[in-house]
Each structure stands twice: as structure tokens, then as C-alpha cells.
Amino acid sequence: MRIADKWKDYSIIATGDGMKLERWGSVYLLRPDPQVIWRADKPLTQIRRPDARYIRSQTGGGRWEASKPLGEWVVGWRELKFKVKPMGFKHTGLFPEQAENWEFIFREVRRLGAGARVLNLFAYTGGASLAARAAGADVTGASVCHVDSARNMVERARENMELSGLSERPVRYIVDDCKKFVRREINRGRRYDALIMDPPSYGRGPNGELWKIEEDLYDFVELCSGALEKTPLFVLINSYTTGLQPAVLKNILTKFFGDRGGRIEAYEVCLPTDEEGIVLPCGASGLFRSDKAEKR
Hints:
- 27% of the residues lie in helices and 32% in strands.
- By secondary structure, the protein is of the alpha/beta class.
- Strands 1-16-17-15-12-9-10-11 form an 8-stranded mixed beta sheet, with helices on both faces.
- It is globular, with a radius of gyration of 19 Å.
């Protein structure tokens, strides 16, 4: 288990009854969470009145109900800055538990040295891309390729990069279906030193391409292995799919990278709460890290 406990602009105040009460900077949100199957000690709205809450619809989806106009605002982690706002499907444009993986990315890209090429797939609003780019500040030639099928999310990643003072450091932003992009990179002969991916449980590409993680992840990792150097410096896979255990990700990484001279681990990614003894599980990550990276 790894706990993203270094946030100053984010915290979980309380949990229960299928909900979590969060602080995002000075804004308080109440959102559903499928992992919160325990009862609340008392109604979360009595602990702190939220500025907005997400109300699920019985027919699917849902809506935000706000007590005041919120628009969008900025939260920070280390030197990185992110725009957040209430979005569709209860999202805010940021997954704060990923800060634990950003720590690893920041440290490893800093260690990799000049010319490190990092590929970030299903890259969303760019937390991992920002961590990789920030780490490459003093690494001549380090490059980041950020790929997502949603144009608005890629634009938000650009905005986050600018907010973080990193816009002058080149990032290759691609709006495309990740499978199609990786196939083209292989055909072009492009190879990367490190791979990050954060695939959804279910989704569609810009042209309606269907993705189901249980059916597609294994083949996709196999495809991506062809876009990596023979011994990649690291491969990081994250999943939010409820029921997909960390050991599944470890097994997939072992199939493709177990003989490449490194170590493989998998772990739950969690967030702390203000409730004593309670941490919130938020997903699973699998990591291959080569021995070559340790020697740099």
C-alpha cells in the first residue's frame, strides 16, 4: 500500500454512506466513492457543509448541486499547479492519489539522465507528464510525449503545464486513440525509455474505438512493449477498475518484462483521511523498474 499523504491543498475530511467529503484548496466537495461501503458516524453534511455535492441519477450519470458558483480554481502539489472544477461523472480533472506515483516519476526521470524519452498514455490532464517534465528541468534533451483521446483534457494538460511554469520545456501533445498512436510509433521506429499508462475501465476513442480494460489491457501492454527500448528504465501501469487486484498488474508486467533485468512490484494507491485509522483505497498500480535505472 502506498499513501499519497504529502498534499497541502487536498484532504479527505470524512467518509461514509458511499460518500467522501473533500477539501480542494478552500473548496469543499461531497462526492460518491464506490469503495466507501461503511456507514458514516454522522451525516457528512453535519461535519462540514459542502460547497457542491454530486448527486447520482437512478438512470445513470448524475449532476452537481452547488451552494455557490464555483467555476474553476487552482490547487498545488510540490511546485506543480492544477486547475480543477466540478466536471461530468463526478470528476474534478485531477486524481490526487496519483501524487504517490508522481513522486516516483519525478525521482526516476531526474535520475535517468540526458535524452530520457517518456511516453504517457491515457494521460488525462497531465499530472504524470508534469512530474516527468519538472524532473527534466536540468536534463538536456529529456522529452515527454503526452497522449489522450479527449482534446479538452489535453488542453487542460497544457494549461496545467503553463500554470506550473513548465510551458517553455517542450512536451509533445497528441490527441489520438492510444492503440493507434503506439502502432504508428512502432512503424516509425520510435522507441521510449519509460512508459506510463492510466487506462480507463471502459471508454471510447475519438472515432468510437471501444476499450474494456479486462479484455484489452494485456494485448495493449504487449503492443506497447514494442515501442520501448529493449530494457526500459521503468513501466508504470495504474488502474481504477474496482475488483482489479494489484497482483493482476504485476502478473502482466512479469509476462512482458520479467526477463529484462529488473524488479516488479504492485500496490494499492490510497489517500489518508482525517478519520483515525481510515485510509481510502483508490486504485492499483504495477511497476517494472530496471536494474539499469538503479546504476545511473
